[in-house]
Design goal:
Low-confidence stretches: none
Structural class: mainly alpha
Radius of gyration: 22 Å
Number of strands: 0
Helix content: 40-55%
Distance between the termini: 27 Å
Largest sheet: none
Mean pLDDT: 86
Shape: elongated
Number of domains: 1
């Protein structure tokens, strides 16, 4: 796995974990009973993004280490995910791509 693949994998995992973590522990202004004029009652009362970003980053590092380790060890490869047998075992015939 080269550095670009590693960074892309980290970014994808980070955003997936972020979107899962955003609603966890969310208290809305309607829940708190203090709706600021001009905002929706569903708006967050206290949005601690820095703390949430730190948690998301910590979880992502753990998940990335596990997934990158599996990929780099060769335990699971792309050919293992070829459920419909569309990939040839040694590449295209003749090696010219066509």
């Amino acid at each position: 796995m080269n550095i670009t693949s590693a960074l892309v994998l980290f970014a994808v995992i980070w955003f997936m974990v972020l979107f899962i973590a955003l609603p966890i522990g969310l208290r809305t202004q309607g829940d708190e009973g203090e709706v600021v004029p001009g905002t929706s009652a569903g708006s967050p009362a206290r949005l601690n993004l820095k703390r949430k970003f730190l948690w998301v980053t910590a979880i992502t590092v753990v998940l990335w280490c596990v997934i990158a380790g599996i990929i780099m060890s060769g335990w699971i490869s792309v050919s293992d995910l070829d459920w419909f047998h569309r990939m040839e075992p040694n590449g295209p015939a003749g090696g010219t791509g066509g």
